[in-house]
Amino acid sequence: MAVEPFKTINKTEQASTEQWFDIGVNLTNSQFSSDYHQQIELAKQAGVARICITGTNERESHLAAQMAGQYQNVYSTAGVHPHDAKDVSDNYLSVLKALYLDNQQVKAIGECGLDFNRNYSPQEQQLQVFSQQLDLAIELNAPVFLHQRDAHTAFIEVIKPRRNELKQVVVHCFTGNRQELEDYLALDCFIGITGWICDERRGKDVLELVNQIPLNRLLIETDAPFLLPRNLTPKPKDKRNLPLYLPHIAEQIAAQFNITLAELSAQTFANASEFFNIDEQVNG
Ligand SMILES: [Zn+2]
User: How far is ligand 1, taken at its centre, from the CA of residue 147, in Å?
Assistant: First the structure.
């Protein structure tokens, strides 16, 4: 497959009429502690009409629910990231369950999964905490927001026997190869694409693969404050990624699919609303 040359995108070219849904923003990260409110507003002005705040452990899932509860069209997830698997409390599953059941803005279980790249938690514990959260999602009939790094085989082994009972599944921040993509699609997963593809070195393989994702399985996200798109001009001095940069990532993806921004926006917005079980109509 021919590789498209990288486009340099000027911020002023960004369309403001499109409506976007950023499915993964780490707004509870300390980098947003002083201005998360402002960033939600700025994102909205840039056309990012909906945001889902990622919950990564018990405390941050609480915080995410609290933040999301202050706004219309802002949602959150409740889960324990594999990095935090070693620190779960004895009753963490009831904590996540209560967050999901008691707060209508909490829309999915996760972020959960396996990260054998950094192994901040022992692999055995990661596997246990991941399996338990998938079983909780089955019990709750809830969508799941998944993370996988350098653990593909084990990850598939945990999901596969549960897939029929699980509802919607997204593998967020996809950075894998063609075989991994095929495995996820065979399990009817949504695929989350970040600004990783805007990196002409690290992101080249994913950029070439992205148009192999069926359009009705594609979700987009910034994963802010991480993964600042490398080809963003001008670059913010603090290198912090923001949800308002989502349209920039979308331009790159639309070019790979050879579709318009309006088409990509309509499709991914509908997909995200379907994933989180939210009415597609935006109010307020
Ligand atoms: Zn992640």
Answer: 5
Q: What is the CATH number of the domain that holds 86?
A: 3.20.20.140
Rounded distance between C-alpha atoms, residue 4 and residue 107, angstroms: 36
Q: Indicate the number of domains in the chain.
A: 1
Percentage of residues of the chain with pLDDT beyond 90: 90
This prediction's pTM = 0.93
Range of the domain at 56: 19-276
pLDDT confidence band for 284 (50 / 70 / 90): low
Ligand 1: centre distance to CA 241 (Å)? 15
Q: Which residues contact 233 (CB under 8 A, 6 or more apart)?
A: 8, 9, 10, 11
How far is the C-alpha of 223 from the C-alpha of 241, rounded, in Å? 8
Distance 114 CA to ligand 1 centre (A): 9
Token pair belonging to 140: 């709750």
